[in-house]
Give the backbone structure.
Amino acid sequence: MRITADREVCCSAGQCALIAPDLFDQSDEDGSVVLLDAQPDTGRLDVLREVVSRCPTGAIRVEEDPGV
Amino acid sequence: MVDAPHPPVPMPTKRSRPFNPPDGYAPLREQERITRMTYPDGTPGWLILRHAEAKELLTHKSFSARQEGLVSPVPTELQYDGRPADPGAFAKTDDPSHSQYRKLVTGFFTVRRTRQLAPMIERIVHEQLDDLEKAGPGADLVDVFTESVPSRVMCEMIGIPESERKTLQRHVETLGRLSCSVPEALGAVSGMNGFLARFIPIRMDDPRDDLLGDLIRGGQLDEQELMGMAATLINGAFDTTGNMLAMGVFTLLEHPDQLAKLREDQELMGAAVEELLRFLTISHLGASRWALEDVEFAGQSIKKGEVLTVALPAVNRDPERYDNPDQLDIGRTDHGHLALGHGVHQCLGQHLARTILRVGYEALFDRFPTLRLAVPSDEVPMRDDFVHYGPRSLPVTWDD
Ligand code: SF4
C-alpha cells in the first residue's frame, strides 16, 4: 500500500492531520500536507479511506496494491 | 430552459425547532436531486439538499465562488451588485488568486499550531467563566461567554488591540444581519475599514510577533491587501465560533442524555464537537457557487451564470448519507459533515474553532456542573435573520 499527497492541490484544510496524525502533518509555512509515512501497514486502510473521502481537494491518493 | 416538474421555490428559512433545519427542506429533498429555486432578485438558480451533490458542487471546476456572480439566496438589502471582492478578501475569489492569499496564513491554522494555542484559549475561557460567576445565576451566556471567547482569541492571534474588539464585533454582527439596512451596512463597513486603515499602517511601521506581523514581514501584501485579509479573518472568526459555542451549550442542555454521556467520558469530546457541528450547522444560508459555463450537473442542464446554493443544514441531515440524521448522537463516528464547507474554500479557521469549542464546552460544564437554562427553551430568542444561526441570548442559571 502506498500513499501519495499532492502539495500543489492541497488547500491546507488539515483533515488528514486531524484524522491520522501519525501519517500526516502540515508544514508550518503554508499548512500544506506533509506525508510522515508513505507506506503504512494495511491495517490503516479504513482510516486512509476516511482521509481520502474527507480531504476537500482530492490531494491524497492511496494505492492499495502499488504492483511492480 | 429545462422543463422543471416543480415550480421554482424560494429558499426555506423558517424553523419550527431551533435545533432543526427549516421544515421546508425535507419534502423538497425527496423530489429531485437538485431543486429549481428563484433568488429574491429574480435570478433563477438551484438549491442543493443532498450531501453527495453538495460535495460534488464544492469541488467542481465549472463553478465559481467569485463574488461578482453571486446573489443572496434570501431577501436582504445587502446585495453584491456584481462587484468583485476587495483585494486580499480571498473567500469570494477563485484559485489561483484565492490560494495565493490563503497560503500566506494557512500556516497559522494547522491542526498542530491551533492545538498549541490551547493554553491561551484556556486562559481566556477561564477569565470569561470568572465573569460568568460574578454575573451570577440568570446571566446571559452569550454576552458573558460565548461571544467573547472566540473574538478575544482571534484578536490575540491576529494582533488586534483588545480595546477595539467589541466595536469590531458589532460591525461583524451588523453585516451578518439580513434585516440590516443599506445605511447600517455602510456604517459597519466604514467602521471596520476605518479602523483597519488607521491600524495597519501603524503595525507596518512596527510589526509584532503575531499573524499580522508575520504577513507584514513577509512583504508580499500591500496595505489594501492586508486590510482585506484582516477583514476576512475578523469576519470569518468573530461570529461563527461564538454562535456554535452557544448553540452547542443550548443543544446539550436540551439533550441531557447526551450531556450525561459526555460528562461520563470526556474522551468523547472530539466526536461530540464533530456531531454538534453536523447536527447544528449554524451556517444556514450557504455556500453558493455560480456556473462559469453551461454544464450538466446532477442530471440537470445548468446555464452559465446560474447560481447554486447548498443548504448546508439540510445536507448534513441527508438520510442518504447518515443513519438517523435527525438524532443528536455524540457517539457517532462517521461524521464527514460539510458544516465547514468542502473544496478549496473549506473553512480556514476550522481547527482553531474545534479547539475553542472543545476547551469551551469542557471548562463550562466542569465549572458549572448544575448549569441549566433560566427560561423555558422556547423562550430563547433565536437569530433567524442572520447569516449564522444561534441564540440571541441564552439566560442560564446554576446552584451556587
Ligand atoms: S486534507 Fe487534503 S487539503 Fe487538507 S491538508 Fe490534508 S491533503 Fe491538504
Observations:
- Chain B is about 45% helix and 10% strand.
- The interface with chain A takes residues 58-59, 99, 102-104, 106-113, 336, 341-347, 350-351, 354 of chain B (CB under 8 Å).
- The radius of gyration of chain B is 21 Å.
- Residues A 5, 10-16, 26, 33, 55-57, 59-60 surround iron/sulfur cluster (CB under 6 Å).
